Amino acid sequence: MIDVIIITYNEVLNLPHALRSLQGWTRKVFVIDSGSVDGTHDVAREMGAEVVEHPWPGYAAQRNWALENLPIHADWVLVLDADEEITPRLREQILEITSKPADEIHENGFFLNRLTYFLDRPIRHCGYFPSWNLRLFKRGSARYEDRQVHEHVIIDDPVGYISEPMIHNDRRGLEHFYAKHNRYSTLESRETYREIMGLRDNIDSANLTDQTRRRRWLKRNVTRTIPFPAFWRFAYMYIFRLGLLDGWVGYRFCLFIANYDGMVAFKLRCLLHEAKRSGETPEAVLNRNLVQETSALAKPEGGEAASSRPKPDQGERSGREQDE
């Protein structure tokens, strides 16, 4: 008895793989969509999922809304991203646990391991494997921490670990990958700013692995103060965490993540500098940053309208569609 939650926005390339890996052994799959226009709804329904539309409030908030409002009746809940797949061997390990009465299982939840693919190659080093995320838990036992990105589950101990990895492979290409991580770096810089300025209670109250807890501490206390943070992240991933063993794909992946960390550090420094320069409250600085971002060119995930550019006239729009 397993119910599955997947949040989506324009995931027509990824979702079929996720849903196919869930067919035949889960009770119900809920796809919570926030305004997709690429046929995600049709694919989900054709493959047996129940589509629920809900406006985008943020990653953690969307999942918490689903946990609190959907008709979840199974004893166990599995949270999956649209670009993730459950392998047959992992399915067997999950079913070995969930086939027993829930009250006979000591653990309240289980961390699942993820194997990330980049440019269609697995990343087995770089500090990205194993990658633990608490995704399987007893109904009513968990919720997500109040965080805009890289959110984790809050749940009472004990918890367990399932070693067989699921597949994490985003098939939307490098253009989307770069745009998504530009957005992530904005959200993560804001979250780190909130933590530094005391705008968040219960920091790191979720069930975090030691690696995640250490990474957050470094972003709050070290990364924003040292010179060339991207260089140090690359050296750590490529040399100390043996990213070189992943070949040319590992090299490019380390470069990409190092650049991402550099963006987080730079955006965080800008927020802190603005707070010091303006003399405003931390909340005012954060709110003004949000207003500036929503009028910029980057389009957030989740169907939010972010661009303030005027719409082209019909002739211009037709020309662009022809170019595409």
Give a verbal description of the structure.
This protein is α/β, with parallel strands linked by helices. Helices cover 43% and strands 18% of the residues. It is built from 10 helices and 11 strands. The strands form 2 sheets. Strands 1, 2, 3, 4, 5, 6, 7, 8 and 11 form a 9-stranded mixed beta sheet that branches. It has a two-stranded antiparallel sheet with strand order 9-10. The chain is globular. It starts with a strand and ends with a helix. Residues 304-324 have low confidence and may be disordered.
The CATH architecture name of the largest domain reads Alpha-Beta Complex
What is the mean predicted local confidence, pLDDT? 89
DSSP helical segment count? 10
Output the CATH class name of the largest domain. Alpha Beta
User: What gross morphology would you assign?
Assistant: globular
**Rg from Cα:** 20 Å
**Whole-number tally of structural domains:** 2
Number of strands: 11
Q: What is the end-to-end distance?
A: 45 Å
> Main beta sheet, described?
9 strands, mixed
Beta percentage is 15-25%
- Summing up helix and strand content along with how strands pair, one would put the structural category as alpha/beta
In N-to-C order, the SSE pattern is: EHEHEHEEHEEEEEEHHHHHH
Report low-confidence residues grouped into runs of 5 or more.
304-324
Helix content: 40-55%
CATH topology of the largest domain: Spore Coat Polysaccharide Biosynthesis Protein SpsA, Chain A
CATH homology superfamily of the largest domain: Spore Coat Polysaccharide Biosynthesis Protein SpsA, Chain A
